[in-house]
Amino acid sequence: MFKFSFNLPDESAETKEPEKPTETKTAEYECEEVLLSEDLQKGVTINPDHLHVFPATVDILVEYLNCVSLPKEELGLDILSAEMDHSDLIPGRYEGGLKVWECTFDLGELMAENDEYKKLFEKASVLDLGCGSGILGILAVKLGASKVVFQDYNREVLEKVTVKNYSCNCRGTDAESGEESSSSDAEVQFFSGDWSSFVDKVEDQYDVILTSETIYSPSNYAKLIDLFKKKLKPSGVILLAAKTYYFGVGGNLRLFEKALETDGYFSSETIWECESGVKREILKIKSKP
């Protein structure tokens, strides 16, 4: 229980300027690869009571783990700290990867339903940046991508959720036919850590970069744009889904578009928007000729 002291200071005591607290910057997590265990490579079955289903189309479904069902004793300090603070974000420690945000579903539906964007994934190399549960990367596998890299800040998110969701959807055998899943041929990798470290340690470039709900913090815009410049192939496409405004944290799409314009390397256009409820948009970003 907190106690508040209302004792008045001794007026005879010398008045001193309060000391300014020393600012400490949290060290950002280095990029690390998370490998699929042998069991996960064979495919896992998740208790249906712990699953949600995202119907991207009638024929394309993505099952994903209900993170509320994760036992508290299995969670690490970063995620437990966020839960105790009732927060989706602790800068430098936890970036909200266990929660599936609305814009992920917006972008997933566009990928699966729109023929123009669906064909982008045929035999393509894809980066799911800030992947969280991995729904967008899993969809890319199902749509025919040849390689998909899943990246999230927190290693624990990848280990506890992303790899299991991938294994559940894309590995093993079909329950009805008994045949090997047709979506298991794509090469996949999983990386945790900060974006700058990912840029330094992973050499690949990608045909498509998918990212959802990653522009909430203006302090990360320069880092994000630098990653786009170094990781997108010259003819590649970035699909970025976001809320128009992020209240309380400072980020918004117009501010991000201004950062893109100031940098001068990319052009962008809004290809989808939702005006009802919380305003949300999807941008298509490409390198300028």
TrEMBL record:
Record's CDD domains? Answer: AdoMet_MTases
EC number(s) recorded for this UniProt protein: 2.1.1.85
Q: Which GO terms describe its molecular function?
A: protein-L-histidine N-tele-methyltransferase activity
Any one cellular-component term (Gene Ontology): nucleus
- Which GO terms of type biological process are on file? methylation
Q: Does the keyword Membrane apply?
A: no
Instruction: Report the principal subcellular site.
Output: cytoplasm
Q: Does the keyword S-adenosyl-L-methionine apply?
A: yes
Name used for this protein in its record = protein-histidine N-methyltransferase
Which organism does this sequence originate in?
Aedes aegypti
